[in-house]
Task: structure prediction
Amino acid sequence: MTPAQATPDPHIPVLLQPILERAAPVTGTWLDGTFGAGGYSRALLAAGASRVIGVDQDPEAFERAAAWAGTCGDRLALVAGNFADLDRLAEQAGALPLDGVVLDIGVSSMQLDQAERGFSFAKDGPLDMRMAQAGPSAADLVNTLPEAQLADILHQYGEERASRRIARAIVTDRKSTPFTRTRQLAGLIERIMPRPKPGHPHPATRSFQALRIAVNDELGALARGLMAAERALRPGGILAVVTFHSLEDRIVKRYLRDASGGAARASRHMPETEELAPRFALLTRKAVEPDAEELAANPRARSARLRMARRTDAPAAAADLKTLGLPSIALRQETRA
Result:
């Protein structure tokens, strides 16, 4: 029995076959920066990787893996942490340089399906949303942030057009009753938003997405993770990133565009610009989307987009965060950091 067949997977790895096809032959040491249920890790081991470093900030990910991870022996190493620090984590695991990095950005199916984690408006649970189960929760943000900052989060992270109206209602309601439950917040949004037409998203979808991104600093972590992968990959190493909404995909697209295009960087000491050698070669000119067969097997894959690139031998360079498409609130946070 191969590692990929060791146990039923509650989370189906999205766009797995396109990743394996473009990365073939899969060899050496890979890092799965969003381990989750281990679907990508097991598939990489089955495809030929000699070792996989599985990284996740959610303690429950490794609890779920306990039933099968031992069958992989020393070919699989599980490391607690955020993929934003993947180069440091790989170094601590004695795995540098890496032959490949795969990232599946966003919330997992398991997290959405667990009401007690507070990610979903469809099930009542604590208003939490913390992937690492530490730090300020969604309830903390909703109950303490000023109205303007709440509105900015809903608008910039959720692209919610009614952000100011929703933020105003939250601030009004929390004066008498603090928000502690997911259905409590979803009910407020349902109350002030028009009922969705059949086939349209629930009115709370964008707000919950925005709060989740803010709680977990997901866009900042993505930008840092891309730069960490660039530092960690050997020449010829593969970077594969799966995203699920336009904010994430835009950051990955712009990062790889700039890193693969020999973008010019101005020098303080010379009137001309200094040409940077491309640090990546694109393996996907356009984002790869799920085909009809994958969508039939896994409807949750419908919004997934895959972008891949191969590391060159050019020295790693820090990305210009202003060109990546980070919302201004995320950009301010990364600049302070």
The first strand starts at residue 29 and ends at 32.
